[in-house]
Write a structure and sequence with these properties.
single chain; 370 residues; alpha/beta; Leucine-rich repeat, LRR (right-handed beta-alpha superhelix); two-stranded parallel sheet; 14 helices; small GTPase binding; GTPase activator activity
């Protein structure tokens, strides 16, 4: 084993530790590879260090410059797919499942890959279930595939002990598939982010997630509609199940974009103790405000949104009474931003928002309303 391979093996064995990477950078500098050493140090710095905005611009510009010149030399050689660098090495790989199976050993020994996105994986699940590299994965993504009824094939209880983030987007997963997923969740004690966007599980699916004790560690839950028909979306009934959950009560981020929770669902959500840790809430395009301003009153009165930093209300309806409440919302004093782009706004509503003392915290479409 060469010295370089020795260092790389240490980095792969401890993917979350910067020290082996920085030791490797020192060795690279000693043998004259100053450029690679600089890149590793800068990427570690960009992730870990408290940089000023000006320092971050300078560091990230230099990182882009180095990658433009040397990406091919530093990437995993001889494979297809998209490779992304973090902390000096390829940590993310987007690749076809058949190519991943072909090159898995080569990938495993050449880079600390801990984030993996696989495409066209449905017909290769049995083979994937025997891949050693999965034991070190922190993030796994299956997008635009056909995994309905097949989750147990790939998600063996012992296969993903380090998994923090799981994305199963647009995979035709129904409520019964989410029931399977929740039964497997105890195998992922470190899972803190789950993205199930674009799957037709409807209210029953959200109720199933809400009852899953194995999902207690979740902090981010992304459930965008991504264009689902009305019947397959989440409505006020699904939100009611979430607000009663004893498992999903520590969420920092909740994304319900593009569903149909309506005014009733929104009110139930913001009046729930399960919203008390939320920092980011996305309820864009959810039929909110179509039957009056009461939803805004519930928002203003809620004692559970004191940690909220971002609220996305885009593509809903903001009538003048709702706008009048919004501009006085106490959470604006704490710096919360509100996305109102694409909303149905009367001239009076727009004027109230434009004249607000917190105008800079409202994201609005440019120009006057039509």
């Amino acid at each position: 084993m060469t010295d370089a391979n020795h260092f790389l093996a240490a980095i792969i064995a401890e993917p979350e530790d910067d020290l082996p990477r920085l030791v490797f950078a020192d060795w690279l500098e000693e043998i004259g590879d100053d450029t690679r050493a600089e890149f590793i140090r800068l990427q570690c710095l960009s992730v870990r260090a408290p940089l000023t905005p000006g320092e971050r611009v300078t560091v990230e510009a230099r990182i882009r410059e180095l990658l433009a010149l040397h990406r091919d030399r530093w990437a995993i050689p001889g494979i297809t797919g998209v490779q992304k660098f973090r902390r000096g090495f390829v940590e993310y790989l987007y690749i076809k499942a058949v190519d991943f199976l072909r090159f898995e050993r080569h990938i495993a020994k050449n880079a600390p890959v801990v984030r993996l996105r696989l495409s066209t994986a449905a017909t290769h699940l049995a083979a994937l279930a025997n891949v050693p590299l999965f034991s070190r994965l922190r993030a796994l993504e299956f997008v635009n595939d056909e995994l309905a009824g097949r989750l147990r094939i790939i998600f063996r209880p012992d296969l993903f002990p380090e998994l923090r983030s799981l994305t199963l987007q647009n995979n035709r997963l129904w409520a019964e598939d989410l029931a399977t997923l929740t039964q497997l969740a105890d195998s992922w004690p470190k899972l803190n982010r789950l993205n199930l966007s674009g799957n037709p599980y409807s209210d029953d699916g959200l109720a199933t997630l809400s009852a899953a004790a194995g999902l207690r560690s979740l902090r981010d839950l992304v459930l965008r509609s991504d264009g689902l028909p009305f019947v397959d979306c989440i409505h006020a009934t699904g939100v009611a199940a979430f607000t009663q959950s004893t498992a999903l009560h520590q969420l920092r981020l909740l994304n319900l974009a593009g569903h149909h929770i309506g005014d009733a669902g929104f009110r139930t959500l913001v009046e729930s103790r399960n919203a008390q840790h939320l920092e980011v809430l996305d309820v864009s395009q959810n039929d909110i405000g179509q039957i009056g301003p009461e939803w805004a009153g519930a928002l203003a009165a809620s004692p559970y949104l004191r940690r909220l930093r971002e609220l996305n209300l885009s593509r809903n309806t903001i009538d003048p009474l709702a706008a009048e409440v919004l501009v006085k919302w106490p959470q604006l004093k704490s710096g919360c931003t509100v996305d109102l782009r694409g909303c149905t706004l009367s001239p009076e509503s727009r004027q109230l928002l434009d004249e607000s003392a917190y105008r800079q915290q409202f994201q609005l479409d440019e120009g006057e309303p039509a």
